[in-house]
Amino acid sequence: MAEFSGEIAAQGRRFAVVASRFNEQITQKLADGAVTALLDAGAAYDDVDLVWVPGAWELPAAARALLASDRYDAIVAVGAVVRGDTPHFDFVAGEASRGLADASAEFHTPVGFGLLTCDTMEQAEARAGGLHGNKGADAARAAIEMADLFARLAVDDEETG
User: Listing from the earlier edge strand, what are the strands of the sheet with 48-53?
Assistant: First the structure.
C-alpha cells in the first residue's frame, strides 16, 4: 500500500497571499502571519506575492485570477468576516468560502483557507496572533503542505502511469 503526505517545505515554490482589507486591523496580522510562515518554511522572498482586495467577497475572484496565471503552487486567502445585526455575514462568509473551494478544485491548486468567520472582534483578534494563534500562518502551512503533497502525487502518477 502506498501512503502519501506532504511536508511543510516551501523551497522552490511560488505562493500568493490574497488578503482582504476590510477589518484591516485583523487582516494585516493574518497576512503578516501567512507571509512569515511561507518564508520560515523556505520560500524565497521574491517567490511570495501579497495581493490586497477590498473585502472577503473579492477573495475568490482574486484567487481565480492568480490561479489562472499558472504562476503559483498554492494560494493563501486571508480575511475576517465578523457577524453583525443583518444576514450580510452569512452571505459573505458562505459565498467567499465556497468561491475559494471552487477555485481550488477548478485549478487543481491548493488554496489555504485563512478566512475568519467570527461572532465578535475579540474572537477575530484571538485568531490573528492572540490566544488562538495566527490562522493566517496556519493557512499558509496547510497550503505549503498541500502543494508538496500535490507535487508528490504528480511524480507518483508519472512513475506509475
Answer: 48-53, 15-20, 74-82, 111-118
Please report the domains of the chain, with CATH numbers, ordered by start residue.
15-155 (3.40.50.960)
Residues of 36-57 as b/e, b for ≥16 C-beta within 10 angstroms? ebbbebebeeebbbebebebbb
- Taking a C-beta distance cutoff of 8 angstroms, is the pair 37, 3 a contact? no
Whole-model pTM above 0.90? yes
At 60-110, the pLDDT tens digits run: 999 999 999 999 999 999 999 999 887 888 899 999 999 999 999 999 999
Residue 88 catalytic? yes
C-alpha cell at 102: 471552487
* Closest by Cα among 154, 95, 161, 138 to 8: 138
Which one from 7, 54, 71, 88 is the annotated catalytic residue?
Answer: 88
